[in-house]
Sequence to fold (188 residues):
Amino acid sequence: MENRFQETFEKKNYTVEGFPIGEYEACIFKHCDFAQLDLSEYSFIDCQFQDCNLSLVKMGNTKWQHVTFENCRLQGLHFEYANPFLFEVHFDHCFLNLSSFYQRQMKKAKFKHCSLHEVDFGNANLSEAIFEECDLLHAQFDQTNLEKADFRTSYHFEINPQINRIKKAKFSKSSLAGLLTSFGIIID
Fold:
């Protein structure tokens, strides 16, 4: 098991050359391909992923502690299988369609300019999370804590206020229809 600290990894295709299991702390990954790898039991602490492909990565007990993703493809990831201890992830300009954050504790998480189509946020704690310019088409919110979350610039979401906690959450006037869809109300 490798321990890597403050290293930068650029233009690596780990789907061909393999990726050594280990703990990566304060590392930066740029233009790397991890697609469909099994990252179970790996640790990423204070790491940055920039322009990387992590689609369909398996993550049984993977540690994601204060990790940021920028311009990354993260389609079909199941973060509910990641290690919950100190779990903290943030996303900027990422493609996260068909991913799942089921039951994740993600207070103050940041999603900026992300595609979040059909993402499962069921039973997650997203209190004080920021969804800035995100496309939440068919994203699932069920028993989700969205208190003080900010959706003012996001769109295509449908959130049922009867089954989610939305106290003091922020919405724009133009997006209020996303809160009323579950009531069968037609808004013109």
